[in-house]
Design brief:
The structure holds 2 protein chains of 2 kinds.
Chain A lengths: L2 H27 L15 E7 L3 H7 L8 E8 L5 E4 L11 E4 L4 H33 L5
Antiparallel strand pairs in A: 1-2, 3-4
Helix pairs in contact in A: 1-3
Chain B lengths: L9 H7 L6 H36 L6 H33 L4
Helix pairs in contact in B: 2-3
Classes of the chains: A alpha+beta, B mainly alpha.
Chain lengths: 143, 101
Amino acid sequence: MDYFSAFAISGSGMSVEKLRLDVTALNLANVNSTRGGAGTLYQPLTVVSTAKSGAFAAALAGAGNAALGAKVYEVRPSPMPVRLVYEPSHPDADGKGFVAYPGINSVNEMVTLIAATRAYEANVAALNAAKVMALKTLEIGGN
Amino acid sequence: MSVDPVGFLPAVRDIVSGQAPEASAQAGPIDFAGWMAREIGSVNEKIVNSDQLLQRLATGQVDNLHQVMIGLEEAKLSFQLLVQVRNKLLEAYQDIMRMQV
């Protein structure tokens, strides 16, 4: 059934938004981390998503739309300046008493979180609409 | 006053005289049975697939919950399509069985 391609498209969007949520949660979890994994400071991450390639040609050909959708292009560190806080008693303080925190803006992260949630909801709404249409189609000829 | 015999429908004449109808109808039933078997097979595949998805969800091997839900929805839709086809078939069969001969 060609409705399954709509499901697949919505599903790819959901996967992307789920990853966005994961990455945002990771950023928020590390907002006060003063040490990264390999001695470096934690870098805030951003999900860059893109449309699946070759999608337009496939759509024009009218062949299966299952290859359409969104995908994650990369998860890249955002170039945010570190946040320096004067805490001389902190074990990670430098010579002048400043501690470097990752440049994570909690407000931005919350906005990303809400946007990802809403986008996920929109994908679910599209999927449900496809389902309602398919079920309605099965009512053709019924009484 | 005379009543014309039912001679204007070639198909009816063929059936009445016991001759086999033309070629297209001959291949029909076999093709339909094959199609039906294929469709039932694909619906069964979907149901088995959703069963496996649920099993993997229960054992914690699923990383995307929505894929499980989409799989379940696909199985449900396929099954409902099958049920509707079955309803139509049965309806047609009963219509024919009720027919006065």
